[in-house]
Amino acid sequence: MVLYGYYKGIISSRMLAEACRRNVVFMALSADARPHFTTLAGFVRELDREIVGLFRDVLLYASELGLIGKEHFAVDGCKLPSNASKQWSGTHGELQEKRKKLERVAERIVDRHRERDEQEADGAKAKDAKKVEAYRRKVEKITTFLRQSKKKLGPSGNETKSNVTDPESAKMASSRGVIQGYNGLAVVDERCQIVVHAEAHGSGYEAHLLGPLLEATRATFAELELSTDVLSKVKVTADSGFHSRVVVSQVEQTGADAYIADRDYRRRDPAFAGAGRHKERDRQERARERRKKEQARSPQKRKLFVVQDFIYDEKRSRCICPAGHGLYPSGRHMLFNGYRVAHFKAPITACRNCRLRARCLRHPERTLQRQITIIKGREGDRPKNPRNAASERMRRKFDTPRGRELYSRRMGTVEPVFANLQNKGMRRFTLRSRRKVNVQWQLFTMVHNIEKVAHAAWKS
Questions:
Q1: DSSP bridge partners of 342
Q2: Per-residue pLDDT of the chain (460 residues; tens, 9 = 90+)
Q3: Is 404 exposed, middle or buried (CB count within 10 Å of its CB: 0-12, 13-18, 19+)?
Q4: Are the beta carbons of 70 and 189 closer than 8 angstroms?
Q5: Which helix (H) or strand (E) holds 155?
Q6: Is the CATH number 2.40.480.10 carried by domain 48-83+168-265+399-459?
């Protein structure tokens, strides 16, 4: 019943229960049992152990039909809203401020209630009492969450927004605006667009999940005895959202032959070399319009002195400002990113009453003295960051004709899977917590795989 309901876009347990009473197909599948919606909801909610075996059974059958090529895997994510409101999201500090605001609103309603005349209708008083009770329940909800929950940290170690209703969900930007939900990740085989691995995570940033996702895919194929090490055979493609120095290094350690796009890959593509000239005229026109608006909105911007306006004598290590004051050196032979630089500061007494102070300092009202750094020349090669080595290797491999051709097949492999789920009505998660949402995401992708198997069996 659940699989057929998801196939028809019926993912709500209440709608499934209603279909079992009204739809003849559902009546046949349920043997006219007419289950209650809480029974259906509890079944899906507690399916986290069984879903792994079911998903792999479908995957094994698809492999027996020859639907898995094991030549090219495309990885991507689909952000879907969940059963939680983004209005209840925030850091612990933001939630504390929200609690104080709700407390103040409740207090104002109570004060207004006390100031009312004794002769006022009881209906208005009862309405105010309900409002106060609702606000106090919200305050208690936030207080309980802050007392029982720890701060939610992101991959970089900084605090991210938590959600009072579903702490494991995330507030993330999507093509449909900012949503509160989960990111459904999928590893898709190119031959027949079979999803070979699927996971849901409450994180808008998905790059750090690529390495573990590939390792889980390798483990799945090994347990099904479809391949001892599938990552050593396939090519893996992922878009620029998965590219970072740390992630590329982690993917290299998995042994996968991956092609992960970076954010500047189109600029290096010869096919896009002349694309800029078609937009240059519109870009210049928009820039002129923007300058006109800025000039009309704000006064003329001050023209500040630049380095070329200062007189620098390298032999004597002297520097003279446009007002004629001598600057004293605060560093003569410093190195910065492979360059030899000289740093100078102006005396505070000279800058205090200088007639050119407004043209020399960006913020003359609060800056005490002018400082200037002069580049003298390069001191050898710029030191290389060893962490960038993996990214450089990925760029060189990606820019080859083979890399460009392989990456061009990524979108046609993984995007139709998400489009199929959206068209079937599987556009949101109805459960809360990552464990339950992960079950629902695997049910979504399993329905897609079953449909592929059915079409292949029908054609044969």
A1: 374
A2: 999 999 999 999 999 999 999 999 999 999 999 999 999 999 998 888 899 999 999 999 999 999 999 999 999 999 999 988 888 888 888 888 888 888 888 888 777 777 665 555 555 667 777 888 888 888 888 888 888 888 888 777 778 888 888 888 988 888 878 899 999 999 999 999 999 999 999 888 888 899 999 999 999 999 998 888 999 989 999 999 899 888 999 999 988 999 999 888 888 877 776 666 666 777 778 888 877 776 676 555 567 888 889 999 888 888 999 999 999 888 766 777 667 888 899 999 999 889 898 889 988 888 889 999 888 877 655 445 555 788 888 999 998 989 999 999 999 999 999 999 999 988 899 998 999 999 999 999 999 999 999 988 777 6
A3: middle
A4: yes
A5: none
A6: no
> Would the pTM count as exceeding 0.70?
yes
Q: Which two tokens stand for residue 93?
A: 């500090």
Distance, in Å, from the CA atom of 272 to the CA atom of 341, rounded to the nearest integer, reads 38
Distance CA 322, CA 335 (A): 26
411 three-class SS = helix
Q: Which of 32, 145, 50 is CA-nearest to residue 90?
A: 145
Residue whose entry in the numeric block shows the structure tokens 């105010």 = 128
What tokens does 332 get?
A: 């003569």
How far is C-alpha 18 from the geometric centre of its chain's CA atoms?
37
Closest CA to 198 of 46, 54, 84, 43: 54
- b/e map of 209-223 (b: 16 or more CB within 10 Å)? bbbebbbebbebbee
Please state the φ and ψ torsions of residue 80, each to the nearest 5 degrees. Answer: -125, 145
